[in-house]
Design a protein that fits this description.
Length: about 100
């Protein structure tokens, strides 16, 4: 069953341009990861340093594999260096 993952990020406002660039670069690998059906980045209109990455995954297992890969040296990204606080991840399935 497909799922939607919402990754909420508070970027460092003093590095906002660089942070958005790091996010763009990081998401290239996310989009290419097996099972990623697509994603988009939403930027808060009142607080541009607050973004939400909306990810669509083929299954919970594919998303789990992606999260596990990101925790390895091969999957690590510099995103943590431009965050103002810890990210928040929520995953949802469609109710029919």
């Amino acid at each position: 069953m497909a799922i939607t993952a919402l990754l909420e990020l508070d970027l460092d406002p003093e590095q906002l341009d660089d942070a958005l660039g790091v996010l763009r670069e990081t998401l290239v690998a996310t989009r290419a990861f097996p099972g990623c059906l697509g994603l988009e980045v939403l930027q808060d209109t009142d607080d541009p340093a607050h973004v939400v990455v909306v990810e669509q995954w083929e299954s919970l297992e594919r998303d789990d594999a992606y999260r596990a890969w990101r925790a390895t040296p091969e999957g690590a990204s510099p995103l943590g260096t431009v965050l103002a606080g810890p990210p928040s991840l929520h995953r949802f399935s469609t109710v029919q």
